[in-house]
Amino acid sequence: MTLKVPILDQCALSGNEEQRILVERLSSYLKRNHNLIFPHQHNFYHFVIFTNGRGKHTIDFEEYDVQPWQVYFMIPGQIHTWDFEGEVDGYIVNFSVDTFQTFLLQSDYLSNFPFFLGLKNKSVFVICNESRDAVVRLMDELIAKHFKMDFVKVSLLYLFMLFEKQMEPNEKIEASSYNYTLLKNFRSLVEKRYKDLHLPKEYASLLHVTPNHLNALSREYLGLSAGEFIRSRILLEAKRLLATRRHTIGEIAYELKFSDNSYFTKFFKKMEGITPEEFRRK
């Protein structure tokens, strides 16, 4: 019997219902939440900077080897768990989904940053040597002093920009460009319609571009073809449903708008290498 993966609330981890942003040393956070070793989801944004320690960190069924100066960005809904070895330290930041929506004119401003896309090849990286001292100073200052919330928000935005600067040129798009708007709308559409729209040409039609143009843009900036991006989102949801709900394979196939169980099983095995039943047991 599959156990439901719990969704944790920000106030449950901070111990303060009014605290919309948590900035804390990782060591003290782990000490306070020492039982937090089971797979779980968050309903808030979450990122962790490791400065010391080893172990494993799994995000949406992808396992990473923890190393010093690694940073992990996680968006609401992702499933993660960790298994550390020895003493671990660094910094952890949790903030609610509306933290920046009500602070900036552009309510979806976080989507400008590649590491808030929920893509594994952009949300985990090592902080470059040139930025480490600045990151430590900023994080220590935010923890040590009781700044007003607006200052904390501005400081976090500065940190995000610092991280973005070290990304490769082909991982960034000028926020005012046509391609940026198109890609942003494509990602947003996939997130809203992946259950009932499975083909790139369907999204291209809604975006008023050719499938070839959408495919080229997706390859250049996301590292995946448009079809691969859509299928990876469907696969991820299938994995989450298999891990978090007691639905039958047929019910999951129906929810993801597959014509029948066998088509869903064939899709899953082609993408993952094992059947849905084998993945659930695993």
Notable traits:
282 residues, alpha+beta, Jelly Rolls, Arc Repressor Mutant, subunit A, 2 domains, eight-stranded mixed beta sheet, 12 helices, 20% strand, transcription, AraC family transcriptional regulator, HTH_AraC, HTH-like, transcription regulation
Description:
Pfam families: AraC_binding (PF02311), HTH_18 (PF12833). The chain is an alpha+beta fold and 282 residues long. It has 2 domains: 7-171, Regulatory protein AraC (Jelly Rolls, Sandwich), CATH 2.60.120; 178-281, Homeodomain-like (Arc Repressor Mutant, subunit A). It contains 12 helices and 8 strands. It has helices at residues 10-14, 26-32, 120-123, 129-144, 149-165, 178-193, 200-207, 211-222, 226-244, 249-255, 261-272, 276-281, and strands spanning 7-8, 21-25, 40-42, 45-59, 62-66, 70-74, 79-95, 124-126. Strands 1, 2, 3, 4, 5, 6, 7 and 8 form an 8-stranded mixed sheet that branches. The chain is globular and about 55 Å long. The chain starts with 6 loop residues before the first strand and ends with a helix. The mean pLDDT is 87.
